[in-house]
Design brief:
With about 70 residues, the protein is an all-alpha fold. The chain has three helices and no strands.
Length: about 70
């Protein structure tokens, strides 16, 4: 889970850095929108929802694969 978190975090940082260089965040400020609320908060919320779901799915698949060769009594 930790390598996936690092990869997603670096992708978010790269995307936000590109937006800063191309002045897209400045245009959000001109429109009166807070860039953090508009860009960062939805991503953090999505990660907070998706990470536990993916963790449970991986655990369930691992447990089912462990029981497959035998009868799981």
């Amino acid at each position: 889970m930790l390598p996936a978190t690092g990869r997603v975090g670096s992708a978010f940082a790269a995307e936000l850095g590109t937006m800063q260089v191309s002045e897209q965040t400045d245009s959000l400020r001109v429109l009166g929108t807070d860039p953090v609320d508009y860009l960062v908060s939805p991503r953090v919320l999505a990660c907070m929802i998706a990470a536990p779901i993916l963790n449970i799915m991986c655990f369930a698949m691992g447990e089912s694969a462990d029981c497959a060769p035998m009868s799981c009594s």
